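Supplementary Methods, section 5.1.

A reviewer requested that the exact input to the structure prediction be made available. We therefore reproduce it here, unchanged from the version used in the analyses.
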Amino acid sequence: MRRAGNLLITISAITPAASVFIMGQQVVQQAGTGAILCFIGAGLLALATAYVYAELSSAIPLTGAEYSMLGHTMGPSWGFMALGLNLFQGAISLAVTALGLADYLGVVFPGAPAVPVALGVTVATTVITILNIRLNAKITGAFLLVELATLAVMTGLGVIHAKNPIIDLTIHPVMASGAGLTHVSWAAIGLGMAAATYAFNGYGGAVSFGEEMHEARTGMAWVIFASLAVAGVAEVAPIVAALAGAPDLKAMLHADQPFPAFLLATGGPLLDRAVSLGVVVAIVNAMIALGLVNARYLFCSGRDQVWPRAANRWFAAVHPRFHSPWISSLVIGAATLGCCFLPLDQMVILTGTNMVIIYAGVSVAVIAGRRNGSTARGHYRMPLYPFWPIAALVGLAAVVVADWMDPKEGRPGLIANLVVMAVSVAYYQLYLRRRGGWTLRGADGEPFGAPEGEGLGG
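The structure derived from this sequence is encoded cell-by-cell as follows.
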C-alpha cells in the first residue's frame, strides 16, 4: 500500500472519536476545564515522541515495531521487554475497547449486554484483519470518515453555542467539587495529562506496516507526523468547543458522561443517538486497526524464531491469497475473546502505564542508535537532536511520577508492567539464549541488514 493507506489505518488506530468520548471524558472528570492544558501538554509530548518514532522507523521499518527497534539498537533483553509489553497489552486493550462498545450502543439499543456485544464485535473484526492490507485500508478509511464527521458535529455545536471564554477556561481551570466548582490543582492536571497522553497513542503504530508499504524508509516519517496532526486537531477541537459551548458548565462537569450531556443539552436526544452511533463506528474501526498492529507483533516474533518451533511456524504463516499474518490474527482474536471475561476495571489498571514505558524505551533507543551507529541506514534524521528524545523522557518521567502517586490505578498498572518486563527478560535469558540466542530478521527472513525481500504481500 501507499502512504495514504498506512495513514488511514494509523489514524484509525489512534481512533480520535473513541479517544475523545472515552479518554477525553476521563480527563474532564479528573481535571475539569484543565483538560485543555492536559491535551496541550500531551500533544507536545506526543510531538517529541513522534520525532523519535520517525527516525527509528526510517532505519528499522519492521513489523515488530518497538520490539525490533529496541532489540536492534540496544540488544535482545531490551527488545524482549518491548515484545512482552506489546503482547501483554494487545489483547487486553482490545477487550477493554470491545467492552466499552455496549455503553454507546446502549443509547440506541437500551440494555445491550456488554460481554455478548464484545464477543460479537471481536469475532467480526478479527475476520476483517485477515483480509488484504489494501482492503483493510479502504475499510478503515470509510469508517474513519464517519468518525471524523461525528467529531465535526460536536465541534460545530460548541462553536455555535460558545459562551465560556476559552482563555479563562485555560488559564483559570475549574473542576467539579461537591455541589459546585473549584480551582484545578497541578496534581489533577498531572493525572489528566497521563490519560490525555494515552488518547494520542497510536501514531507510532505506522511502523507495524513498514513491510507492506512502498518506500517505507522515505515515507514513514510523513505518515507519523500526518497522523499525529490529524489526531491533534480532531481531538482537541471538539473538547475545547464543548467546554466553551456548554450552556451550563457546572452541570456538564458534574455529569457522569460530560460530552453526551453537552450533546443532549445543545443538540437534543436525536443528535445524541446519532453521535453515539458514530462512536460505535469509531470503536469498531479502532479494533480493526489495533488488531492489524497486534497481529504483526506476533508475526514478527514468529519469524525471528522466538517461540518453540511449531509456534514459530504458525505465527509466521502468511495467507496465500490475502498475504496477511492470518494465524497470528486469529491468535490475537482468540486471546481478546478470553480477556472479555475479565473484570473491566482490572484490565484498565493493567494497561494504564504500558504506553508510557514503551515511549521511554524508544526515546532511549534513538539515542543508543545514534551512538552505536545501528540507525545509520535511516533516511530521516530528526532536527535539533538530542532535544526531542530528552524532552520526551522528561515529560514521560513526570507522567510516571503522577501514576506512582495514584495508588488506585496508576501505581498498580506501573507495577504490573514492570513485572511483565522482568518476565520477558527472564524468558530470553533462561530459555531463548540457552537455545542458541536471538536474531532479528528482515522482511525476507534473513538477518536484518541484508538486502530486503518482499515480506508480507502488499
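The longest helix spans residues 258-303. These observations are discussed further in the main text.
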